[in-house]
Here is the input.
Amino acid sequence: MAILVTVLTILHVIFCLLLILLILLQSGKGSDVGSMLGGGASQTLFGPAGGKNIMVRITTVVAILILITTMVLAKLPKTYGPSQNKIIADLQKEAAATQDANPLAKAGKNVTPEAKAALKPEKKPAASVPLKTVTPEKKK
Here is the structure.
């Protein structure tokens, strides 16, 4: 799959550069291809709109190819590529482990309060620690 992604990326870059070149080669609305050759022959070189038609068609095809390669490149890593972010995978494993340990997480929202109280783990009281009494020191 890595070779396919590499080839598609190279094609995508080539299509992008070609689209930039095609757009820069097209003349504006006011000037015709024939006007560069002498002004009067603007409609006789390729016909009334013949010169613009082919450039517009090639530009459209290249733009569609860019769209297709973009969508394929965006879909490939999610479908076939290896896990890109191992941190998220580790967090998902930890969340699954904590859900297994906590029965309240499995219980859901539609559980009665009595059932939730029965599922709650009993809290153990803190161990009683004897308090140390502080006696004031005697002054000598």
About this structure: Residues 1-28+49-101 form one domain. The radius of gyration is 36 Å. The chain has five helices and no strands.
